[in-house]
Each structure stands twice: as structure tokens, then as C-alpha cells.
Design brief:
mainly alpha; single chain
């Protein structure tokens, strides 16, 4: 298996996990979406204490999302430090690909969408643009990135059998 193919397993798994568990992922992400929409769009009208308190609510929702995805991702799996050492030694190129993929996503969704496009807009439209962008990014880009990181951990730390599992019963098992 090529290192690129191995690296692509994580975003594929990320997308499957995201789409299979869309309702709870979006529900937990909606907390941050609504909070960002209100706090960013109406910065002057929101009491700073309320804005700060709402950040703790967002933190709790994100932690709940991490716990949910972690439980889904790690169900029935064994994680080992030794597996991680072996994976890094054998598949470091795959991890470089992961870094490249995540860097590209950061460049598009953070640098380009938030900073470059925002800078092209008239000053009067920037705050609303940012509020709507953050509203949309939380249940999509932010959630997918979080799931992706858990997928990387899953791939790197998962203890794998030393040899492939047998597809057919052994000769001794046939005589039973």
C-alpha cells in the first residue's frame, strides 16, 4: 500500500463518520454556530460577561463532540504506544501527507475564506460575512477537522495483528 493511499484512509473514514453521525455532530456544532453568529455579528450589543460565558458553553459542546466521536472511533479498538512508534517509523510519509492535507484545508478555509475574502469586502460587510462564515464552518469544517484528528490518532495508535487474519479455516479446524 502506498503512503498516499494509507494517508487517504483517514479523510475517507472522516467523511463516513461525519455522514453516518451527522445529526449529533451538527447538533453539538450548532451550539458554536449560533454563539459565533450572535457574538460576532452583534459584538457591541452583547454583554462581555455573556460573551465570555457563551464561550464556556461552546467549549462544553466541543468537548461533548470530542467524546462522542472518540467513542465512535475507538469502539472495539485497542490503542498502544508501541503501535504508534511502529506506525511513525514505517509510515512517516503518510503522516507528512496528513499534514499536507490539513495544511491545505487550513489555507482554504481559514486564510482564504476568513482573511483574503473578508479583506476584499467593504468594511461594512465584513462583520456579517465573518459571522455567517463561522456559522457555516462550525458544523462543517470545524467538525470535520476534529473528526479527522481523531481519525489520525485512531490510525496511528491502533494495535494491529502481527499477521493478516486468516480468511479460511485452518486444516485442523476442518476436521472438527
Amino acid at each position: 500500500m502506498s503512503e498516499l493511499t494509507l494517508a487517504l484512509e483517514v479523510p475517507r473514514w472522516t467523511w463516513r463518520c461525519y455522514t453516518r453521525h451527522l445529526a449529533p455532530v451538527v447538533a453539538l456544532s450548532a451550539v458554536a454556530s449560533v454563539q459565533r453568529l450572535v457574538v460576532v455579528n452583534w459584538t457591541g450589543e452583547v454583554d462581555p460577561a455573556l460573551a465570555t460565558a457563551s464561550e464556556f458553553v461552546v467549549l462544553a459542546a466541543r468537548l461533548a463532540l470530542v467524546v462522542l466521536v472518540w467513542r465512535i472511533a475507538m469502539a472495539g479498538r485497542t490503542l498502544r504506544w508501541g503501535a504508534a512508534r511502529t506506525f511513525v517509523r514505517r509510515h512517516w510519509r503518510s503522516l507528512l501527507w496528513q499534514g499536507a492535507f490539513l495544511s491545505a484545508a487550513f489555507a482554504v478555509f481559514e486564510v482564504l475564506a476568513e482573511h483574503v475574502v473578508s479583506g476584499l469586502l467593504p468594511e461594512s460587510a465584513r462583520q456579517t460575512y465573518l459571522a455567517v462564515l463561522l456559522f457555516l464552518k462550525n458544523p462543517t469544517v470545524v467538525a470535520l477537522t476534529l473528526i479527522w484528528w481523531i481519525g489520525v490518532i485512531r490510525q496511528v495508535f491502533e494495535a494491529r495483528p502481527a499477521r493478516p487474519r486468516e480468511t479460511f479455516p485452518s486444516a485442523g479446524a476442518l476436521g472438527r
